[in-house]
Amino acid sequence: MPRPVPAALAPWLPLLRCPHCAAGLSQHERVLRCPQGHSFDLARAGYVSLLAGGTATSADDDAMARARDSFLATGAYAPLRSLVADLAAEALAARPSPRVLDIGCGTGYHLGGVLERVPRAWGLGVDTAARALRFAARAHERAAAAGWDVFSRFPLADAAADLVMDVFAPRNPPEFARVLRPEGLLLVVRPAEDHLAELRASVPGMVRPDPRKEERLAAALAPHFAAEETRDLRLQVTLDGAGRRDLVAMTPSARHVDPRALALSDAGAALSVTVSVRASLHRRR
């Protein structure tokens, strides 16, 4: 008898598809295999990688995933987690056993918050970083984790999810629409222009939010989605040196700043930093 797949992955298994040929997958010991013989290992850490080429086009490295886990453990982003959970609960109201797909899930922090708020839901966190998937696979007892490339066709059946979440992650609107049920919703969270302004002023080389982000997002989503609701969140968080270092290190800015700028002293003076984001729900057209 094969070992069972992780309990949180079981509701998703009939919906997963081979990234090479789009056929269904079945379990054989610690492997998922399609009828054409393409196979994908179930990692001992509880996730499955469905990367067609075996490697991601881009991914957080081990240090970035660990920095993200460390920073989120401080609770500095707890209000954002609550906002995401509020909007998800609203989107999933009255659905008997909804499935939530979290694209670019990182450590599963926000997906875990949604599953706590919606006790009947099942989640699947998607990322390309192995370390992030290890964290995400244990973010919640109903959270599964899988690796695939957001810029390719998703290895998932049509109409598989009730909610697609995209929190500070790359977007693929045609695939979001394809894998959502007809009445499904998309939840998008992105930084506002003044997000982390004080930190960007103190750390040269940090990536700045695109001033045309809202315009570009609207244009990308318009063929597939209609906006339903938008909520803004703006607050100040006080970060010590370690918190600032982890916050920089967990973002794409880590690839652009001088390594000496990341070596912020843990004993440095606290800094008040603006957290400014916009979250919106979108319905399939």
Features:
285 residues; alpha/beta; Rossmann fold; 8-stranded mixed beta sheet; 11 strands; 27% strand; methyltransferase activity
Explain this structure to me?
The protein is of the alpha/beta class. It has one domain (13-284): Rossmann fold (3-Layer(aba) Sandwich). 27% of the residues lie in helices and 27% in strands. It is built from nine helices and eleven strands. It has helices at 62-72, 78-91, 109-117, 130-136, 173-179, 197-202, 213-221, 241-249, 259-262; strands at residues 26-28, 31-33, 39-41, 47-49, 99-103, 122-127, 143-147, 161-167, 180-191, 225-239, 271-284. The strands form two sheets. The protein has an eight-stranded mixed sheet with strand order 4-7-6-5-8-9-11-10. A three-stranded antiparallel sheet has the order 1-2-3, with no helix packed on it. α1 (62-72) packs parallel to α4 (130-136), α1 (62-72) crosses α8 (241-249) and α2 (78-91) packs across α3. The protein is globular, with a radius of gyration of 19 Å. The mean pLDDT is 92. InterPro entries: Methyltransf_25, Methyltransf_Superfamily, RlmA_N, rRNA_m1G-MeTrfase_A_prd, SAM-dependent_MTases_sf.
Task: Give the termini separation.
Answer: 45 Å
CATH topology, by name, is Rossmann fold
Number of separate structural domains: 1
Number of continuous helical runs: 9
Structural class: alpha/beta
Shape: globular
- The order of strands across the largest sheet is 4-7-6-5-8-9-11-10
What's the CATH H-level homologous superfamily?
Answer: Vaccinia Virus protein VP39
Radius of gyration: 19 Å
Order of helices and strands: EEEEHHEHEHEEHEHHEHHE
CATH architecture term = 3-Layer(aba) Sandwich
Strand proportion: 25-35%
The biggest beta sheet reads: 8 strands, mixed
* CATH secondary-structure class: Alpha Beta
Count of β-strands? 11
The low-pLDDT segments are none
Helical content stands at 25-40%
Q: Average pLDDT, to the nearest integer?
A: 92
